[in-house]
Amino acid sequence: MRVRIVLVEPHESGNVGAAARAMKNFGVRELAIVGARPQITRDASEWWAKGGADVAQSALRFSSLREALAGTHLSIATTSVRGRHVYEQLTPVEVARLAEETLGDEHTLALVFGREEWGLTGEEIAMCQRTAVIPTSPETPTMNLAQAVAIFCYELSKGLRPASAPKDPAPGELIDNLNLRARQLLIDLGFFTDKEPDRLCAELQALAGKRTLTTREASLLLSFVAHVEKALGERPSRPHSPGGSPGEH
After folding, report:
1. At 208, which CATH number?
2. In a domain, 166, yes or no
3. 76: which of 6, 65, 140, 156 lies 20 to 30 Å off by Cα?
4. pLDDT 10s digit of each residue in the chain, 249 long?
5. 92-102 and 145-158 are packed helices; what angle lies between their axes, rounded to 10 degrees?
6. Distance of CA 183 to the CA centre of its chain
């Protein structure tokens, strides 16, 4: 299993370097940076990186989180938010167990970390398949970016073994397409009525994400959505009987 650490618009170059060093401590080398801020991987980052400077210098660059998640098979948003709109809070131990149970050697796990100042947006969290949080004191719930990266990398490095049987988790792009199409279908069906679509969709995604879908399963669900879309598009309006309501004789 490959692990991709994704940092979304990191502000402090020192944090990038320290995160790179923590990654290398636990054998993780694939760093991705979303967005661009000056001095992200220079000067202070190299000083903080120490033995992990090569990880910081070879970081992959992406303009959007969606691009950074392309090609991954399981994406997990990390957050310190314990609000009502976060419907799942996997611990780092549970993330490691989930990865071990669902991913094979050829698959990629993406761990997404937000901005130092205010983390990930609701839209960015929704792009990921699962949500995780490090249990901390309620008085000081947020952690330094590099420390958070280190904790997740440590747990992932502890007991993972090659998958015992072939597994075929659905690619992130397929899951993302399924989520977007299903959301639009529910809107077309009037499912949300006067409720907030973002909140309900987040809850539905958390519910669906409790089981990692295979490529076949996700493709089957997407085919189902496509057939319902087609049926809705072809459905004729019901004619009204002259002089009465539909169905009257």
Report:
1. 1.10.8
2. no
3. 140
4. 999 999 999 988 888 889 999 999 999 999 999 997 654 445 555 555 667 788 988 999 999 999 999 999 999 999 986 554 566 789 999 999 999 989 988 999 999 999 988 899 989 999 999 999 999 988 888 899 999 999 999 999 986 545 455 578 899 899 999 999 999 999 888 888 888 888 888 888 888 777 788 899 899 999 999 999 888 887 665 454 444 444 444
5. 40
6. 17
Q: Which two tokens stand for residue 96?
A: 């490691």
Same domain, 14 and 130: yes
Angle at 235 between CA 205 and CA 221, to 5 degrees: 30
**Do 49 and 81 fall within a single domain?**
yes
The rounded distance, in Å, linking the Cα atoms of 196 and 127 is 17
Q: State whether 127 and 150 are in the same domain.
A: yes
As for how many domains the chain has, the answer is 2
Is residue 32 domain-shared with residue 64, that is, in the same domain? Answer: yes
CATH code assigned at 63: 3.40.1280.10
Give the Cβ contact number of residue 138 at 10 Å: 7
**What domain range includes position 14?**
2-158
Cβ(111)–Cβ(76) below 8 Å: yes
